Amino acid sequence: MSYHRSVPGIPPSTAMFLLLAAFWGTSFVAIEIGLHVVPALSFAAIRYTVAGAIILAWAAYSTDRWRPRTREEWFAASVAGVFVIAVYHGALYLGELRVSGSVAAIVISLSPILTAAFASRILSGPSIDLVQGVGLLFGFAGVAVVAAPGGGATSLVGVALVFLAAASFALGSVLARPLATDLPIETMEAWAMLLGSLVLWVGAGARGESLVGIEWTTTALVSLAYLTLVSGCGGFLLYFELLDRIGATELNLIGYLEPVVAALASWLLLGRVVDASAVVGFAAIFVGFALVKREAIGAFASDTAAAVRSF
Description:
By secondary structure, the protein is mainly alpha-helical. It is globular and about 50 Å long.
């Protein structure tokens, strides 16, 4: 895949950003569809076992390091595997047994706010100030609106599980920051997927899930293939390419386009319309992010305006 060609008139980074939002936004609906056939944790485990094997093969082909060698590298891959792959997707899939994909996408959009909160407590960074504290309250209020009766969710337990998924992703992102190693990102991602899928298989066994007797319908196979190849392999490769091109602050904004994509996909594929209260909750979460990351967003906006003027 070439990342240097794009739609005429659209910068490559913008086209990649929109493509990644489409990949990850539609994944919430694809998960919801597949869960009608495949048990939740087994579904997630299959996805990341296959995706991890594919990424590992790519890492072996494209890099000079196909596996971790030091204890620190294995630990870094394990942290990502447990928090970003296993707990995040396990809780998300279990949550989507009870809430729609579009609602799950709204709750997951809280992740950047939680990341800032965890970073202020765990890392030696600046503490949360008053404005950022208000932003956190907006974010939590948004989730509360979504979870309230008439807010779009059908289960408080489902919202709680998806919130756990968002918190796990945020915590894993923060814990991984001090664990930077020389391991190529493709190799790191492959082993995180494989180790995370192993944890998911253990969880599936503990829940008594079984793949025996599953009727693999065409819809279920298409859902699994899409999640594994497009949202999984393709999505993560795009993510790390964009992380290098535009940085984490702008890339965090993708979490606020995903619910829009998920809502459109849910309407087109399942005929579901997002409740107005859920939209209000999403707006509150977005305001919270803007308050928490106001300085970084302001700096990015200034740099972007300067680049436009010079162009």
